[in-house]
Specification:
82% helix, single chain, mainly alpha, 12 helices
Length: 311
């Protein structure tokens, strides 16, 4: 398949890429495949919307999680719900515009998709980093944990997360370089910080494995088995996110390195972007699998939704 050099002309890389994803020269050969991917996006959008709606309702009933921790999971579920409600439908509309060769509408939809997807990706990454910080503080602060990690402070963290993510993404149509630079800095920092924190958590737990009584005392009667389970649950969500995001990152880096975009790369970019959105559909199932209290709350919610009392 023919490739187009992203450095040709006077336009910078990101602007050239934005135009090429809606150009007949590259999309003609893979248009049908992209439309097929859009059908998958529609299905995943329904799953993400319904699944995360259930999780949000279940979190209202779930009482085993501390309010700050519960708020962070609600933030993550909300961003996943928005993926199903906004990002995936936009990607489906983008595919339809390719099918109908509506290039002007394609560019507008792609711009909206870029802003929406970038916002939600940043919110998810920052929230997962906040969850890893929360788990680390629960272990390291001991009796001071409940005093330091309060619901009010967590609300402030969540608000800052959304405001910064929306602001950075909103700058994309104005000056894409700011948005891209922000992403290049924040995303590796989030991944690196989470890796360091979980490494310290497991190292601390291993070193204190023979001092359970002391550990319980230091963490305000924290149940170690329950704490391990919570850490593994949070880590599982983090690892699944990385698995879903990594293929897209590889394709993106490959395109940037080669400075050209071919039809095959465009198709790979579309498919791996869908895999990124897949994460939002998988998370509700992951919560139910790893968090038994969440699973019971979801079951109760479903039973209540379909329960019809006899008259």
């Amino acid at each position: 398949m023919a490739a187009t050099n992203l450095t040709e002309g006077v336009k910078p890389y990101a602007e050239a890429f934005d135009e090429l994803v809606c150009s007949p020269s590259l999309t003609a050969q893979v248009r049908q495949q992209i439309v097929a991917v859009s059908a998958v996006n529609i299905f995943l959008a329904v799953v993400a919307f319904l699944g995360n709606s259930l999780i949000l309702v279940a979190l209202q009933k779930e009482s085993s999680l501390r309010p700050p921790t519960k708020l962070l999971f609600r933030c993550l579920a909300t961003s996943d719900l928005c993926v199903g409600l906004m990002a995936q439908p936009l990607k489906a509309v983008y595919s339809v515009s390719l099918l109908h060769r509506d290039w002007n509408n394609c560019k507008r939809v792609y711009a909206a998709l870029s802003v929406t997807a970038f916002t939600l990706v940043l919110v998810s990454l920052l929230t997962l980093t906040a969850i890893s910080i929360d788990r680390y503080l629960a272990l390291s602060l001991g009796l001071r944990y409940r005093q330091v990690v309060t619901l009010k402070r967590t609300y402030i963290v969540v608000a800052i997360t959304w405001i910064k993510s929306i602001f950075a993404a909103a700058l994309y149509p104005i000056d894409f370089r700011i948005t891209i630079s922000y992403g290049y800095v924040v995303i590796p920092l989030c991944v690196g910080a989470s890796f360091v924190l979980y490494t310290r958590i497991f190292r601390t737990l291993r070193h204190r494995s023979n001092e359970v009584q002391d550990l319980v005392h230091q963490t305000n009667s924290l149940n170690i088995a329950r704490y391990r389970k919570a850490v593994y649950s949070a880590l599982s969500v983090q690892l699944v996110l990385l698995m879903c995001y990594s293929p897209f990152a590889v394709v993106e880096i490959s395109v940037v390195t080669k400075r050209e975009l071919s039809s095959s790369y465009l198709l790979a970019w579309v498919i791996t972007g869908t895999v990124v959105f897949l994460n939002s559909s998988l998370n509700p199932f992951l919560y139910c699998w790893k968090i038994s209290e969440m699973r019971q709350a979801v079951k109760q919610t479903i039973r209540q939704a379909f329960y019809c009392p006899r008259e």
